[in-house]
Amino acid sequence: MTLNILGHDDYNTYIVDIESDNLSATRDINTRVYLVGVMDVMTGEYTLYNSVEEFRLAGVTGTYVFHNASFDVPCLRLRGMTIRDYYCTMVGSHTLHPESSTYHSLGALQPTVKKALRELLTEHGFNFHGVPKGSEYSWYGKGDMKLDALVKEYLVRDLNATCNEYIRQVLAYEHTPAKLVDVLLTVNIPYVERIISMEQGINVTYDDHVATVLAEATERSYKACFETVGYIPNPTIMDAGKTPYPKAGYKTVGPSCVLTPFNPNSNAQVADALTRLYGWEPHVLSSAGNASVASEVLEALDYPLCGSLLEYGKSTKLMSFCGALRDSGGIIHPSYNQCATRTTRLSSSSPNIQQIPARDKVGKQLRRMFTARPGYTLLVGDQSGFQLRIVAAYMSYYFGDGRLAECFNRGEDVHQFFADIYGIDRKPSKNVTFGWLFGAGVTKMTATANRGNPNPIKASVIKGALASLEANMPAMPGIKKLFIDAAKRDGGIVHDWLGTRYVIPELLSRDKSEVASGERKVCNYVVQGFEASLFRKLQNEAASLVESYGGRQAFCVHDEVGYEVPLGVEDMLIPALNTIMSPAFSEFTPEVDDVHGLRCECEFAPGNNWLDAKGE
After folding, report:
1. Better-predicted residue by pLDDT, 5 or 437
2. Which of 228, 282, 576, 577 could join 291 via S-S bond, C-beta 3.0 to 4.6 A?
3. Is the dihedral of CA 61, 65, 70, 76 positive or negative?
4. d(CA 173, CA 182)
5. How do residues 574-614 score in pLDDT, each as one tens digit?
């Protein structure tokens, strides 16, 4: 038997795809899974089964290849299938080229073959005016033979597209570093099981008090926005004698327009207000070609309005999140995606629990709502200083500078460590450290440091802090240059110590501003990416231990992971989890080096809810 680069026997590998009424098929046995398509990778021959049971009885065994395994696998398992050896082409695509999730959709990867079901049905005369998106998947088997035939054609197209994509990836991975293949097969593909576990859901005990606090914050920040901007004139000018408000009973003497209150949800109004009030000139455009006023843009601007806009945006998003918790019926099922970011960090939606604030009062109150089921407890661990530990490890390995590593080893205040180097207070030192690390300019660092600060600092202070960093800790700027030089040598690609790759095409541009943008991103991608891929690896290693005690992974938010385990086993699990999640960085260096004895640090604690388990 000859195995391909992915460890699969080509003569025993099958593309598998399913069709169901809706996404609840992963957890609701009553949701129909009405078609299962199976294609032999070697021959291209396919069979369509009318149920999961029919597929199971057919006895097709081997490696199953899915495009979205975190959906297909739990659907099939819930209906009696035993699935162990499988591969996901979406994960394979993202590992090759980390990019947003739209880049890794089957339609984007295989556009000449793949068609959306609605697109296919529209081509054949079906009218979707006013029809909710996605409802067409539930029309199969209702007596319309023409529609049923088109759904089957759609499934066969998906099988062919996935097969083409799988073959493309096999050929692509034959020409990549062995460590990247190892990351794919030992970290990213196994992590699908963690996502399946987390999407089973977590209990929620809703508390209206948080929504009240957020409503007050929304009202307060909106009022601040309105006091700054005021009313917005409607661009439509009406002639004299017109009645702008018919019920008011008057007519205008001269040309007039309607005034409307400033709307902070309108990107166009926000951009106009920033330009009108402060002379702002946009340098970043949205995908539609309009001036971007995304949060990262506003954070870089030191205008009074921006602080109010950011507070308004944060509170309204969290209000929506609270609404999802309120309407959840006591359990939420977030959708997790490891194939959605250029840094490979995990994202989530419906609801997005990644947006829960880390340390403020609202974040704590939200964490209190996440609870264990009766008879279980939550074990929560949080990686301490993960990103800066990675920086310390790289500084030690490549430059022999162990001062930051020793600071961690001694358990000292790392932000005070940097404050002493910069010659500034501790609070703004955090903004300087992370701002510099992730490519922020002096203006953005100053704006971020001054937001909510009663004693604002000047940009010259930030510049002085950066000069002190260059002079007193050259190894830190040194690793940034190391990453940039490596990426430029390798066609805009750089790898971390695990072997995860990051693609920065901006570095290859002829546009100097794009190159500069790429240079600012490189260190961000490597540090955040290594953090994300290493954390996935550690979660995979902890999974079998937790499951052996009857537990499961319940959630993951940035550097925090939560397990739901039976009451009474926590004292046995916690020491073992602390060990697994706190490896020495020397385990990952390219060559043997103790990197000043630096380790990850993660300590678990139990609690009936997420907040209690964090000990806050």
Report:
1. 5
2. 282
3. negative
4. 10
5. 999 999 999 999 999 999 999 999 999 999 999 999 999 98
Q: For the chain, what's the residue count?
A: 616
Distance CA 254, CA 237 (A): 10
Contact (Cβ atoms closer than 8 angstroms) between residue 529 and residue 502: yes
DSSP 8-state class, residue 186: I
Q: Tokens in use for 139?
A: 């029309």
CA distance readout (Å), 150 to 44, 82, 88, 118, 348:
20, 30, 25, 10, 32
Lowest mean pLDDT among 149-163, 186-200, 425-439: 425-439
CA atoms within 13 A on the CB side of 370: 30
Task: With residue 166 as reference, give the H or E element that holds it.
Answer: helix 145-173
Q: Is 1 exposed, middle or buried (0-12, 13-18, 19+ CB in 10 A)?
A: exposed
Distance CA 343, CA 519 (A): 15
What order of strands is seen across the sheet that includes strand 602-607?
A: 552-557, 560-566, 376-383, 602-607
Of the pLDDT bands very low, low, confident and very high (cuts 50, 70, 90), residue 249 is: low
Determine the Cα–Cα distance for residues 556 and 536; give it in Å rounded to an integer: 10
Starting at the edge strand that comes first in sequence, how are the strands of the sheet with 63-66 ordered?
46-49, 33-40, 13-20, 63-66, 86-88
- β-partners of residue 495 are 501
Q: How far is CA 237 from CA 244, 287, 556, in A?
A: 10, 30, 53
Handedness of CA 23, 28, 32, 38 (dihedral sign): positive
In this structure, which long-range contacts are made by residues 81-86, counting pairs with CB atoms below 8 Å and at least 24 apart in sequence? 81/52, 81/55, 81/56, 86/189
Q: Specify the DSSP element, H or E, that contains 564.
A: strand 560-566
12-26, 91-105, 285-299, 303-317: least confidently modelled range: 285-299
> Does the pLDDT at position 359 exceed 90?
no
Question: How far is Cα 427 from Cα 419, in angstroms, rounded to an integer?
Answer: 8
DSSP line for 424-441: S-HHHHHHHHHHHHTT--
* 75 phi-psi bin (left φ>0, alpha ψ -120 to 50, beta other): alpha
- Residue 113 in this model has a pLDDT that exceeds 60: yes
- What is the SS3 assignment for 13? strand
β-partners of residue 17 are 37
